[in-house]
Please model this.
Amino acid sequence: MIKNKSNYNKYKFIEKNFYNLRNQICSEFENIENSLSYSSNNNSNIGKFKKKAWKRKPDKGFSSGGGGVMSLMYGRVFEKVGVNISTVMGSFSEEMKNKIPGAKFNPNFYATGISLVAHMHSPLIPAAHFNTRFIRTTKNWFGGGADLTPTYLNKSKSISNFFHKNLKKTCDDYNPKYYPEYKKWCDEYFYLPHRKEKRGLGGIFFDYLEDDFDKDYEFVKDIGQTFLRTYSKIISDKINLSWTNKQKKDQLIKRGRYVEFNLLYDRGTAFGLKTEGNIDAIFMSLPPQVSWK
Amino acid sequence: MIKNKSNYNKYKFIEKNFYNLRNQICSEFENIENSLSYSSNNNSNIGKFKKKAWKRKPDKGFSSGGGGVMSLMYGRVFEKVGVNISTVMGSFSEEMKNKIPGAKFNPNFYATGISLVAHMHSPLIPAAHFNTRFIRTTKNWFGGGADLTPTYLNKSKSISNFFHKNLKKTCDDYNPKYYPEYKKWCDEYFYLPHRKEKRGLGGIFFDYLEDDFDKDYEFVKDIGQTFLRTYSKIISDKINLSWTNKQKKDQLIKRGRYVEFNLLYDRGTAFGLKTEGNIDAIFMSLPPQVSWK
Model:
């Protein structure tokens, strides 16, 4: 139970880890921007991340508030990539406290996390979503996930195999039950019922993970490294391929599905809007260019 | 109360009116496409409406089903404009029947309507939304509305005055209480709470109108004519003005707000998705090109 502010300090090392991961991701992605040798499709400039801090409006909760830092890059490989770290604390509303584990009789919460969304210039490189978080009410748990959204699902077999193989390996190192369960959760979650379509090629999605704090923490750290390594590899493999106008158009239409999912179904978006989060941070995931037919 | 199919025939003239209005709108908008004398901003071809019929999957309700016809045009003035007419009938689900007037003890319904959304190439011409409908449960009522979404709200004073003046005049011909009430309803409805922003410059929005069937029907017909006449005039006034890249970019960002509204808050979208309506018809309103920063 969160009794006083000093209790938060106990978990500062988790925030620190997300901070370091953010720096590592930004540095790796900037290297990728630099590494593009030639692009026939693109005349944008080499991207560099820009940071923007935001503060959360305190609610009535004890020592409430917090905030975060958004890092955004618009480049020549990454059309738009955002990496957000945030640490927020406060007291859930009546509506929320019945929905969040461990908040029913004590609505105080503390949450720290990192989230990333990348939309690529190339329609041959999937968009990526990655997120890990630690939430504390009267319970403590980790959650997160990683998944990819290619323009053409039926032509992404090898990317999908590679991505899933790596996620499975990391999951298996901790518990052989994780991968099948988290893969299924991801498939069920990233689904557009109105179109009867999957959002992408899947990945993993997990929440309420409280098996063993130390092990869970290591798992979450490892998932971050696995995501970064595999996605960087997927980008590097396709970075110098050119694409057609038709492929670019198809990508913009596919991004429409992404927007539909995020605004109609995404729990994070709904959570953010309901808790009056930072609008720019909540909508960081929305693509820079989208089309609907 | 809807007892048998012949009862529907009693209201065929309303469907016929929406059908005629659709034809009139399409013909007028095609004339506008032809009338563009010169455009420095645009190399699209002259647009022509294409029709696409769709059928609604019957539910368990008596003589249920129905369908509609979408008319879509991609042109050089109209970047994308859709006019949809539909007539659907069936039986509301348990969830819906408690929400819809007159459906609680008899869930049968019949609904006929027309809806229009126009997204213009020129960022100097507002996007338009117009809709009128007749709904029959154990009650009969009309609903509808018309509103405009300019790129720059603070620079649209004269368009706004002209549009509102004409709507007010038509409303006043029927009941001086209509305009103030329907304008307020429109302002409250087309609002994005998460951004604390209006969607556009407003207009009118009305529902559950059952003052006097014959008068209500004339009012709804008149609103259709007023919308078509005023919007066509607004287009014609701005049709030959050129615009900057910056203005076009701002328009695409503004369209993002439009998408946010439609997916997060619009009742019609939610109604369509919940009653398994035609996805293309429901999402006809979504802009052809959109940006988020």
